[in-house]
Design brief:
- This protein is of the alpha+beta class.
- It has a single domain, classed as Jelly Rolls (Sandwich), CATH 2.60.120.620.
- Helices cover 16% and strands 41% of the residues.
- It contains 4 helices and 15 strands.
- Strands 1, 2, 3, 5, 6, 7, 9, 10, 11, 12 and 14 form an 11-stranded antiparallel beta sheet that branches.
- Strand 9 and strand 10 form a beta hairpin.
- The chain starts with a strand and ends in a 6-residue tail after the last strand.
Length: 192
């Protein structure tokens, strides 16, 4: 594993199903520092060259509150343990993504669009789909994120990555964006 990427299985299938079901409960508009869309809307961006899309998926804001704290605490605690980076946890909500057949997110670097973002953390919430490979392009060989339900990935936001086109089924994931202004303490300076 590249020094800028971490991967582990932290959640059960039952817990992941519980997280997926949150999209039915949280449909209100939530203002966050990274807010891009109204809830339950398509997240589609087009290139300027031939009007082809580079990303397409559904997205919901899932708030950080007493109902969701169990999963966010587990993610943040794992991240802190693995990186020695303590976070302020000031974000009000994080993104639940649903990719349907034909959806994708072409290769990109998150840091280019959000210079203050330093880490991406996500949960692979299901595995009953085809295509939709989550690929990180590091200095060495590409890293294929495990499709095993409950897998958590963390990587520096300057790492190029993509979600390939969904061929069949639906892909669900929860994405947490970590920004430099959230960092309280860094004791391991090699990770970013």
């Amino acid at each position: 594993m590249d020094q800028k990427t971490l991967q582990a299985r932290l959640f059960t299938v039952e817990e992941c199903n519980k997280i997926i079901e949150l999209h039915k409960k949280y449909t209100e508009f939530i203002i966050t520092p990274t807010r891009t869309l109204l809830p339950d809307s398509r997240n589609v961006y087009y290139t300027n060259t031939n009007n082809s899309w580079i990303k397409s998926y559904n997205v919901w804001d899932i708030p950080v509150n007493e109902n969701t704290g169990w999963m966010y605490n587990r993610l943040y605690d794992w991240f802190t343990k693995e990186t020695s980076i303590k976070l302020t946890r000031k974000i009000d909500a994080h993104k639940l993504h649903q990719y349907k057949k034909g959806d994708k997110f072409s290769i990109h670097q998150d840091k280019l669009g959000a210079p203050d973002r330093i880490w991406n953390v996500g949960i692979q919430l299901n595995s009953n789909y085809q295509g939709g490979d989550y690929i990180l392009y590091t200095d060495s060989d590409p890293i294929y994120v495990s499709k095993q339900t409950g897998t958590v990935i963390a990587y520096a936001s300057d790492v190029p990555h993509e979600i390939t086109t969904i061929v069949n089924g639906e892909r669900w994931s929860l994405v947490i964006k970590i920004h430099d202004w959230e960092v309280v303490l860094k004791t391991n300076k090699t990770l970013f």
